[in-house]
Amino acid sequence: MLRLSAKDQALLAGDSGPGVRKAMEIVVALGRIYGAERLVPVSSVQVAGVSYRNLGEAGLEFLREWADQGARARVPTTLNPAGIDLRAWRELGFSESFARRQLAVIEAYRRLGVRTTCTCTPYLVGNVPRVGEHVAWAESSAVSYANSVLGARTNREGGPSALAAAIAGRTAAYGLHLDQNRRATLRVAVRCPVRTLSDFGALGHLVGRAARNCVPYLVFEGREDACSGVALKALGAAMAASGAVALYHVAGCTPEADRPDILASDHETLVVDDLQPAYAALNSGALENENRIDLVWFGCPHAGLEEMAEVVRLLDGRRVRTALWITAAREMRERAAAEGLVAAVEASGGRVIADMCAVVAPMQELGFRTLATPSAKGATYLPSYAGLRVRYGTVEQCVEAAVTGVWSA
Questions:
Q1: What distances in angstroms separate CA 366 from CA 103, 277, 377, 388, one per listed residue?
Q2: Which of 29, 156, 265, 392 is a Cys-bridge partner for 246, taking CB atoms 3.0 to 4.6 Å apart?
């Protein structure tokens, strides 16, 4: 039975206004549905449901109404990517009609007290919870990173539930907020080489399909260096996209992996000794005999400086023959500009784009047909969400595709 403190009851009764009451009604309803015994304060929130393409007019009006009721975020709150670069949308070719509505969504969130940093990697721009902290994050790859790499505690929130937690300042303690639900139920023995960013994505794709919503515990047999932040970001994002994995552990690496009881006694076992089935599956959206590439895309999840620098290194000053995008948080783009990375990408004919994600953008407006990416998450979603055929491979392959205009297997 859900027990509410006196403060919880006052918020639910509307003592802080109708906007907060609505938020508490959502938080309490979810707590009762999932059998929570209490609410816990959250230190930060990541809100999904930002692109107008997903929200539509009904979603925009919902946000405006909530803001009109006086609702405001009580804790630091960041936003998921939008459907456009909020400043350079005209240059990219997006329509004014879509941009006008997208900017109205951002304004509604601003009125709600949300920091309008549009990114799926809030941990790269200051929203970094500590081990054991309760947060309420939406966006599957961000949830995975928060739980697994940072050791914070969050369920896989939806847009309205995350926003409600931001306004109420609390969430219901069920699911991955509880110790017993963070134990691994699937042991994954990785027996093949996993070297590149796309290898980690391919591995995540296979594990996610097998795990569904289990908690995997990965053991990289024969190697000790599987723990870079970029690699874990790609791994978790892929597991969250092909399955519903919100938490994973890597032996000797992630914060909770060394807990004596981290692996449940009744766990299942998966052996991964070949990544090629994942590469084949992630290329299934592309035509068998079409190797021409219209767009090469890096930054899903949003890119950090290390990933941008790698693209610049591989370009080595060469001009691209097709569109090349690196998507990133606005703040990260500014840091990259200060380090000369944006200028280097642009000198080659590419673009570093802020705020947006191709998965939730109206890509049909731009005329692209075939896209190359090293992102397993992007390769999973783009065929159905954006109508694009996908080539999936290494960062090196993708850079060469940008330079030559064709895909080389």
A1: 19, 31, 21, 11
A2: 156
In our burial notation (b when 16+ CB lie closer than 10 A, e otherwise), range 349-387 reads bbbbbbbbbbbbbbbeebebebbbbbbbbbbbbbbebbe
157 bridge partner residues: 138
pLDDT tens for the chain, residues 1 to 409: 899 999 999 999 999 999 999 999 999 999 999 999 999 999 999 999 999 999 999 999 999 999 999 999 999 999 999 999 999 999 999 999 999 999 999 999 999 999 999 999 999 999 999 999 999 999 999 999 999 999 999 999 999 999 999 999 999 999 999 999 999 999 999 999 999 999 999 999 999 999 988 999 999 997 655 678 999 999 999 999 999 999 999 999 999 999 999 999 999 999 999 999 999 999 975 555 678 999 999 999 999 999 999 999 999 999 999 999 999 999 999 999 999 999 999 999 999 999 999 999 999 999 999 999 999 999 999 999 999 999 999 999 999 999 999 998 7
Question: What three-state secondary structure class fits 78?
Answer: strand
Of 240, 238, 210, residue with least CA distance to 376: 238
DSSP 298: E
Q: What is the DSSP letter of 70?
A: T
* Cα 91 to chain centroid, rounded: 25
Give CA–CA dist 156/147, Å, rounded.
10
Q: What DSSP state is assigned to residue 129?
A: P
Whether residue 216 has a cis bond before it, omega within 30° of 0: no
Residues of the chain with CATH 3.30.499.10: 6-179, 283-404
CA distances from 116 to 50, 76, 86, 285, 376 (A): 10, 11, 10, 33, 27
Is domain 6-179 in CATH 3.10.129.10, yes or no? no
Which pTM value belongs to this model? Answer: 0.96
Instruction: Report whether 80 contacts 121 (CB < 8 A).
Output: no
For residue 173 the two structure tokens come to 């303690």
In 3D space, the residue among 259, 253, 246 whose CA is nearest the CA of residue 153 turns out to be 246
